[in-house]
Amino acid sequence: MSRRLQRLNHLFQHDLADLIRNELRDPRIGEIVSIMRVDVSPDLENATAYVSVLGEAATKRDTMRALAAAAPFLRRQLLERVRIRRIPHLTFTLDETIEEAAHVLDLMKQVSGEASDR
């Protein structure tokens, strides 16, 4: 991956997080939403934002639907913030790696607790 794409990934991650936190007023968006990473395609046509949402399955589903609906608005806002020729089309994907990692950690704690009881 080129340095330019790495910079754009980081810039879009930061700006999307800020826009979601401060500009979106959709009540479907959960209270704790994090942009984990953004992958911009080399041709700058598409960008996939990986989103972590804390909450129940319904909250996650509603948040992802709200973000998909807000994608054109977010793209326009990025156009004003980022000075590049082409702003990619945004796609949001639910990222559950934090929850999976927490689950694995809980399992490891259970196993170590059982081992110390013996």
| Spatial order of strands in the largest sheet | 1-2-3
Helix content: 55-70%
Count of β-strands = 3
Oligomer type = single chain
Within the CATH hierarchy, at the fold level, what is the topology?
Answer: GMP Synthetase, Chain A, domain 3
Mean pLDDT: 91
Rounded to the nearest angstrom, the radius of gyration is 18 Å
Assign an overall shape: elongated
- Compute the separation of the termini in Å: 50 Å
Helix and strand composition category: alpha+beta
What is the count of helical runs?
Answer: 3
Low-pLDDT regions: none
Task: Kindly provide the name of the CATH class.
Answer: Alpha Beta
Total domain modules: 1
Description:
The protein has a 3-stranded mixed beta sheet, covered by helices on one side. About 15% of the residues are buried. The model has no long low-confidence stretch (mean pLDDT about 90). The longest helix has 25 residues, at about 55-80. It is elongated. Helix content is about 55%, strand content about 20%. The chain is of the alpha+beta class and about 120 residues long. It has 3 helices and 3 strands, in the order H-E-E-H-E-H. It has a single domain (about 5-115), classed as GMP Synthetase, Chain A, domain 3 (2-Layer Sandwich), CATH 3.30.300.20. Helix 1 (about 5-20) crosses helix 2 (about 55-80).
